[in-house]
UniProtKB/TrEMBL annotation:
Pfam families in the cross-refs: PFK
Domain Phosphofructokinase stretches: 2-289
Protein name, per record: 6-phosphofructokinase
Organism superkingdom: Archaea
Gene3D superfamilies registered for this protein in UniProt: 3.40.50.450, Phosphofructokinase domain
Organism expressing this protein natively: Caldivirga maquilingensis (strain ATCC 700844 / DSM 13496 / JCM 10307 / IC-167)
Length: 336
């Protein structure tokens, strides 16, 4: 078969390993092509045959060697027709789409329309893809966020300040929750749980009176800003950390600083967990293709690899809930 591989949406640690591992397996029996710049690459025919040797030097670095974009191939019917024509002329039998909800949604739509056979691999530092416990990149991003927070904490202790760390995650609070737990933050704010900023002030003031410093972790998604949106309708987020720090300082009279690591936590080298997860996902995707299982996303559930129909995944965000929300409430349930 002729198999194409693409990475779409935001970059994440572990993408290069997933691509490398899949090609290393598939090149034994098939022609493998990389599609540069995600779905845009199929619209603009940025497709090249490649071997695993071309990727080995980059396999363990962050980012994505084959580039990415937030292009929606089904933004209009003209694009959809162009996609179908290019897939047919390129002779691609299968496309392995590595991405989050938007990238996988496009793969599912392409499968539904009969344009191509698709297999999805879930990737995003936000960990919000429905149907899987973990996505490629999440563990690495949390580790990076924890490292930043612990470094920041030493300054807070030294100068007896209050600090706010804002982390990425969009509408899901997974990164903030895990960062807050791992650093035992005095307050953690996630989009899934409405909180009062005055309650946050009360909590950090109490913590400050006891130890002469305090730490708050906040998810970027607790507040959405108006502005330009991407082709999938997402607004740009970020900046709430500075607002919260200003609010706390004015309310308490205590010097409060904010740190926003932003994309830094996305660009780190993948953790051991993400490296292994990427390899397992790539292997499962290859095995699915060998068994003619298409229109599915490989997933991680309770320690095991499984398959989920892409149609059951798209349009659903996996938000903090159940056990994890109860754990959140155990430590910060009085912030509303």
């Amino acid at each position: 078969m002729r198999i194409g591989v693409l990475t779409g949406g935001g970059d994440a640690p572990g993408l290069n390993i997933a691509v490398y591992s899949f090609i290393k397996l598939a090149e034994r029996n098939h022609e493998v092509y990389v599609i540069y710049h995600g779905w845009r690459g199929l619209l603009e025919r940025e497709v090249r045959r490649i071997t695993s040797l071309d990727l080995v030097d980059f396999a363990f670095s962050g980012g994505t060697y084959i580039k990415t974009s937030r292009t929606n191939p089904f933004k209009d019917e003209e694009r959809a027709r162009l996609l179908e024509r290019n897939v047919k002329e390129l002779g691609l039998d299968v496309v392995v789409a590595i991405g989050g909800d938007d990238t996988l949604g496009a793969a599912g739509e392409a499968q539904r329309r009969g344009i191509l056979n698709a297999v999805g691999i879930p990737k995003t530092i936000d960990n919000d893809v429905f149907g899987t416990d973990f996505t490629i990149g999440f563990d690495s991003a949390v580790n990076a966020a924890v490292n930043v927070t612990e470094s920041f904490k030493t300054t807070l202790i030294s100068h007896e300040r209050i600090g706010v760390v804002e982390v990425m995650g969009r509408e899901a609070g997974w990164v903030a929750l895990h960062t807050g737990l791992a650093t035992m933050a005095d307050a953690t704010l996630i989009p899934e749980k409405q909180v009062s900023w005055d309650s946050v002030v009360r909590r950090v003031k109490e913590a400050y009176e006891k130890k002469h410093w305090a730490l708050v972790v906040v998810s970027e998604g607790i507040k959405e800003y108006e502005g330009p949106r991407d082709e999938f309708g997402h607004a740009r987020l970020g900046g709430v950390g500075n607002e919260l720090a200003d609010y706390i300082e004015k309310a308490t009279g205590i010097e409060t600083r904010a740190v926003i690591p932003g994309h830094i936590i996305r660009g780190v080298s993948p953790s051991a967990f993400d490296r292994t997860l990427a390899i397992r996902y790539a292997t499962a995707a290859y095995e699915a293709i060998e068994n003619d299982r298409f229109g599915i996303m490989v997933a991680y559930s309770n320690g095991e690899l499984t398959h989920v129909p892409i149609v059951e995944v798209v349009g659903k965000n996996k938000l903090v809930s159940g056990y994890w929300l109860r754990l959140y409430e155990t430590y910060w349930g009085d912030l509303n």
